[in-house]
Each structure stands twice: as C-alpha cells, then as structure tokens.
Amino acid sequence: MKIYYDNSANAELVCHRRAQYRLLFGIETKPSAEMQFGSAAHRVLECVCRGATDSYDDKNQPVPFGAPLPAEYIMQLPQLIDDATTRFTLNSLQLPKFRVLTRWLIEHDIAPAPIELVHGTPAVELKFTVPHGELVLCGTMDNISVENGKLVVTDYKFTTSKYPSDYMREYRLKTQLWFYMYVIKHFGSQFLPSKYIGMPLAARIRAVFYENGLDTRDTELCLCDDYVDTAMSSIMTLMVARLRAVMAYHNNNELAPKTGMATGSCYKCPFAYICQLHNDAEERKQIEQANKKQYNPLLFR
Ligand code: SF4
User: Fold this and answer.
1) Nearest CA to ligand 1 atom 8
2) Residue with the nearest Cα to atom 2 of ligand 1?
3) Is 269 in the pocket of ligand 1 (CB under 6 A)?
4) Measuring CA to CA, which residue among 201, 144, 154 is closest to residue 176?
5) How far apart, in whole angstroms, are the C-alpha atoms of residue 279 and residue 285?
6) Buried b vs exposed e over 22-44: b needs ≥16 C-beta within 10 Å?
7) Does residue 246 line the site of ligand 1, with CB under 6 A?
8) CA–centroid distance, residue 246 to ligand 1 (Å)
C-alpha cells in the first residue's frame, strides 16, 4: 500500500471521514477565493525569485529560469501588474488588492534569495516526491535560502486574517515545517548540492496579511534533528494506523466515522457540504429506523 503524505495530510489525521473523502474517494475540492489569491501570489514570488524576463508570455507554462537581477524585477513590475488579468487566476474583486500586494512584495524584498538546486535552478516552489517505506512524501517547498549559517525553508501564507497573533499561533503545533525539515534531512541529497548537506536546518512561516493594511509576520522553528525525527516518525506512524482503519471501513463499503466532529475540525473543512448530505441521509435513516422501532407495531409483535 502506498500512502501519499503531503502538507495537507494533517487535516486527514483528525477525521477518518475526511481521509476517506480525499484519499480513497479522491474527491477534489474547489480552492477558496483566499487560496486562489495565495496561489496567484505564489506565482508572483516565483517570477520574482526566478527573474522572469520580458519575453515570458506563456501563462500556462512554469516561469522560465533566468539570472535574477534586482533591476530586472523593477522593470518587470509594470508588466507583471498589467498582465495580471490574463496571467494569474484572480477574480476582479481581488485584482486591486493583488496589484498592491505585488508592488509591496517586491518593494519589501519578501522573498529571500533562494539557493540553487543540483540542476542549477533556484529553490523556489520546489515540488518533491520521495518514497519512504509505505509512504510517499510529497509537497512543495516555497523557498530554500541560506541565512546566518542555516538552511532555511520558508513557507508563505497569504491571509485576510485581521488578527496576526491569533493566525500565527495556529502554526505553533502544525507539522508542515517539521515535515520539510525531515525531507531535507533525509532526502535533501536528491535535490540539494552537497555543500548544503548536513547544515543546521530552520523553517519558518512568513505570513502576509493583506486585508487590514499590509503586514508580515514570521515564525521561525529550529528544532534539533532528533526532535524532527521523533516528531515526524510518530506522526507518520499515526497516519498509517489511521488510514489502515479508514481503509477497513472503505473496503467494507462503509463510510468511515466522523471523528472530526469530536475535535471541532469541521470548521472550514472543504468536505463539509458532502458530509452534510451524508449526515442528512444517515440521520433520516436513523430517525426512520428509530421511528419504526418505537411506533411500528409490526416490529413489536
Ligand atoms: S465536516 Fe467534519 S466530520 Fe465531516 S469530513 Fe469534515 S471534518 Fe470530518
């Protein structure tokens, strides 16, 4: 059995039903407006970090690689902005904010200069897929840079939250950053030049708050290697055990239990609308059965 463990798998750890919807039924969810905005902003950062040139005009292709020069970024700025409607997935409401954000990201040098990967490309939006026992670890690292003698993974979040400290608190216990450090520690030699192997690791969330005036906050996580290993191996063991349980229900043609209801993770669950339908159908069935037991005299003869 191969289980794909990616950044969003944490959500599946808390709800068996959610794991079944996403991993076994393979139901895709529509990205929210906020997620679309974040994807577009990631695209801008990719352009900035890779130094997209004036000849870049294919919106469907990855940003081509080129030597990044600050002067070029500034020259590209009007082009990136003017073409935004065709180049990025945005709706018209988001566009004015997006223009402001683009200008702000570039002027504030929000993206640290990425290192080069083994094949000479900058380490931005780095997609990785590495087999690891019965798991396949996959995901996208937004940016890898070297700062103060550490190899730092940066993950960008773009949010409309008006409460930066509450938002940042959410990330304290999230495993995404540990996960990246784990992948770099154990599989980094597949994509990093040898001079970076064995360097101290750090990871951070760089959150950009664009709703209530532009602001940015960082959270830096620097754990000793042993702790990353211990934390990640426990999480992965738990993940495998949970998914085995979900598979058992699935193979039995049953819906897995809604364990998310007990932990409050239904809030913002992208499958809530399907879950609600199943809920209604199940509840109706249960009520009908209960009614039959109580009121159908045939049952009690
Ligand atoms: S709405 Fe709640 S119970 Fe249903 S799948 Fe999502 S987290 Fe699980």
Assistant:
1) 260
2) 266
3) yes
4) 154
5) 10
6) bbeeeeeeeeeeeebbbebbbbb
7) no
8) 14
Q: Is the CB of 17 under 6 A from ligand 1?
A: yes
What phi and psi values does residue 178 have, to the nearest 5 degrees? Answer: -60, -40
What is the residue-level pLDDT of the chain in tens, covering all 301 positions? 566 777 666 667 778 888 888 877 878 777 666 777 777 777 667 766 665 543 333 444 444 444 343 444 444 444 444 444 444 433 444 556 666 676 677 677 677 888 888 988 788 888 899 988 878 888 889 889 999 999 999 988 888 788 888 888 877 667 888 889 999 999 999 999 999 999 999 999 888 887 767 788 888 777 777 788 988 888 888 888 888 888 898 888 888 888 888 777 787 788 888 887 776 666 556 545 544 444 333 333 2
Q: Which two tokens stand for residue 65?
A: 């690689």
- 228 CA distance to ligand 1 centroid (A)? 29
Can you tell me which atom of ligand 1 is nearest the CA of 270? 6
Instruction: Among 275, 276, 278, say which to mutate for ligand 1: greatest number of ligand atoms within 8 Å of CB.
Output: 275
Pocket flag, ligand 1, residue 265 (CB < 6 Å)? yes
Q: What does the block give as tokens for 159? A: 């949010």
Q: Please report the domains of the chain, with CATH numbers, ordered by start residue.
A: 3-235 (3.90.320)
Atom of ligand 1 nearest to the CA of 16: 8
| Ligand 1 centre distance from Cα of residue 61 (Å) | 35
Contacts of 226 (CB under 8 A, 6+ apart): none
Q: 88 with 101: CB under 8 angstroms?
A: no
